[in-house]
Specification:
The structure is a single chain. This protein is α/β, with parallel strands linked by helices and 275 residues long. The chain has a single domain, classed as Rossmann fold (3-Layer(aba) Sandwich), CATH 3.40.50. Helices cover 41% and strands 25% of the residues. The chain is built from eleven helices and ten strands. Helix 7 (187-204) packs across helix 11 (260-274). The protein is globular. The chain starts with a strand and ends with a helix. The structure holds adenosine-5'-triphosphate. Adenosine-5'-triphosphate binds at residues 15, 17, 28, 30, 48, 50-56.
Length: 275
């Protein structure tokens, strides 16, 4: 039977803005009644334009923010930030990789220390073992031993994203939330990082939530696709079905607006790399 790692049930997130003594302000419905399930080892891509609620949903899934209503389940366990708080074990299960890794890497920390830090903070692992694990992960993401003692500014964008991925994997998470992880990279580097993510997913049986506005990338990486529009999931289903037979008018418009050449060129490049 399939194992469900992540489930959202009727998730809602409202933001109350403004308001004061004589007015009640305004409510923004950032996420409206969104439900999904992600099986172990699979990738759910969340697609949509700026402001549609992708980042809000990412914050709920990574347990940074609590939903206004609905339930989030990780490995079948209900997450209740308000009542129960989070156990360290629960926190370890979900990690996030952002679009701009430079912003999340401490410029004064050598890469070996960047990778060792999650172990230092969350485990009682001895220093030598921490260093070994950090070195192993560095090699896993395609960097070399010579990179261990270098600082973040000494790396290219693609290499920094590899470091961010390695750091996210240090605590053996079950689920990675990848928030536009290749959007800031050149096309050829995008393909390399996407291939790396696919390899790591196979090797560690990882489950991914992949947030993107780029349909060519989504088509390559996703098993299931959820299209968001003004906080609603207007389309949700298997990748091939969603791409070949979109049901909602917004999805049809979104797909029609993506230049076909972009889709074809990246697919051809990825196919050549895989061959
Ligand atoms: N902390 C907040 N307070 C008030 N409104 C917010 C807050 N965070 C998000 N919003 C609003 O909720 C809606 C969804 O925002 P969200 O950042 O989730 O969208 P997004 O699809 O991730 O956009 P982008 O790709 O530009 O980050 C937007 O209208 C946004 O202005």
């Amino acid at each position: 039977m399939s194992e469900i790692v992540l489930e959202g049930r009727n998730l809602v997130r409202d933001y109350h803005i403004g308001g004061g003594l004589f007015s009640s302000g305004r409510v923004i419905h950032a996420v409206k009644d969104v439900s999904f399930k992600v099986e172990k080892g699979k990738t759910l891509a969340i697609v949509g334009e700026s402001g549609c609620g992708k980042s809000t949903l990412a914050r709920i899934i990574t347990m940074i923010d609590a939903p206004t209503a609905g339930e989030l389940l990780i490995d079948g366990d209900k997450v209740d930030l308000v009542k129960d708080g989070l156990t360290p074990e629960m926190r370890r299960k979900v990690q996030i990789v952002f679009q701009n890794p430079y912003g999340s890497l401490n410029p004064r920390q050598k890469i070996g220390d960047v990778l060792g830090e999650p172990l230092l903070v969350n485990t009682a692992m001895p220093t030598a073992e921490r260093r070994d694990r950090a070195m192993q992960m560095l090699l896993k993401v395609g960097l070399g031993p010579e990179h261990f003692s270098r600082y973040p500014h000494m790396f290219s964008g693609g290499q920094r994203q590899r470091i961010a991925i390695a750091r996210a994997l240090m605590l053996n998470p079950r689920l990675l939330v990848l928030d536009e992880p290749v959007s800031a990279l050149d096309l050829s580097v995008q393909a390399q990082v996407l291939n790396l993510l696919a390899d790591l997913q196979d090797e560690f049986d990882l489950t991914y939530v992949f947030i993107s506005h780029d349909l060519s990338v989504v088509r390559y990486i996703a098993d299931d696709v959820m299209v968001m529009y003004f906080g609603e999931a207007v389309e949700y289903g298997g990748r091939d079905r969603v791409f070949s037979d979109p049901q909602h008018d917004y999805t049809k418009t979104l797909f029609a607006a993506t230049p076909r050449a972009d889709v074809e060129s990246i697919r051809a490049r990825l196919a050549r790399r895989a061959a």
